[in-house]
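Let us work through a complete example step by step.
Step 1: write down the sequence.
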Amino acid sequence: MSALARFWFSASVQIKFLLIVIPSALVMTVGGNSYLQHLTGQRLVQGEVAQFEEVGRRTALALSTEYWNFNTGQARAIMQSLLLMPNVVRVSSTELAQGKRVEGSPFQFRFEHGALAGSGSDPAQQRTLEFPIQVTRGATPSETVGHLTIVYSLEEQHRVNTQMFYRTVVLALGLTSIVIAVVSVALNRAILQPIGEVSASAWQSDADFVPIALNTGDQLGQLVTAFNELRARHIVSTRQLQDARDEAVQANQAKSAFLAMMSHELRTPLNAVIGYSEMLQEELAEEGASASTLADLERIRSAGRHLLELINSVLDLSKIEAGKIELDMGEVSVPQLVDYATSTVQPLIAASGNQLVVAVPPDIGHITSDATRLRQVLLNLLSNAAKFTHHGTITLAVHRETMAGHGEQMVFDIRDTGIGMTPEQVDKLFQAFVQADSTTTRKYGGTGLGLVISRRLCNLMGGDVTVTSAPGTGSCFTARVAVNPPSSSPSPSKA
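Step 2: predict the structure and record it as tokens.
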């Protein structure tokens, strides 16, 4: 954008109005005045020419009488009287005999205006008129006995016209300036000032808003009235939304508190069921109970553990939503963390006929994080990969990466060759209690909480969980956590 365009963009409406109106007014004033003065000057010049023509004809008629009476003194006086007319430069007369000039004739006169005949008059501004001097003898046709020549100057008339033009231009510019100033003030008061008040009011907070007072029935008044009503409705709607939000937050907090309480209440009897089922399995195994009995006890124990994992997930989610989860930040050995997670999930991976590939650089080092929560994230992601992959490969790769605005991060890539997902399924992946689709829930089970919890835990640890996937080719989940969170204070080393 050029400097002129930036100026025009940032200029106020009043300045733009003046920049448009003033040049237009000047052009119209000067141009119109020039045209009018040109017409006026032409009329004045034409009037002066007509005056000299009339005087010339009358003088030629008067000289014809003196020529006939041979009165040279009176002819001289008539010729000299022509110099009394303004702007006459020179007058002269000649005598003709049979159409030829008579040299040395007593009627041959030449008189000049001293000031105008010299250098005081521009020759280009001079005009010449010639008139025949005719006499009539009885019934014979008129005979031309001489010529009258009048030379006059239009310079004075042009000077007067020029002065009149400049005076008119100055007067017109003055009047135009006054009109523009009055219109500008009226425009500012009637339009620009109310618009400015509307613009300023639009930036006011709801608490500071005061309705704009404009008692006019025109379109601008209607606009201001509509703005006041719109702003009032907006304030009411905002307050209602704030009240609804506060109620929703309170309801969500109550829900989270209820889920946390119920989870605690359910975990105690479930732990008892799991414990007693394990004790019964051991005792009945020693007593030689039948295989079907032991299998039934195993199903009881597995169902109890599954229900306990579900309750733990709900409890974790409720803590995160309520903002009550606390991270135990400390120094974490990444190789030890990865080794623990992979060894824990290895039986599940092997049960589906999958192969686990781990790529951890030996110098990957340590990070400052919550070892328990980070281990939980890795176990969730690896378990998901094992669940949706059969007779394939699951790869866990770890590396460091520096991201703009996030500092150095530790990146865990869990890639599988499983069923993959469509873009629509990926969009719903990180919603609580939602899996890719209903067929996934029926076939593979699960609650859809693991990925939600994993992402929110990574958010708390200065990172995120993202996914790329394609149907039939597998998925890649990437978990990032900050290497050195800004508000962390490392505790003793943990794995």
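Step 3: interpret the result. The chain has three domains: 11-164, 204-325, 328-482.
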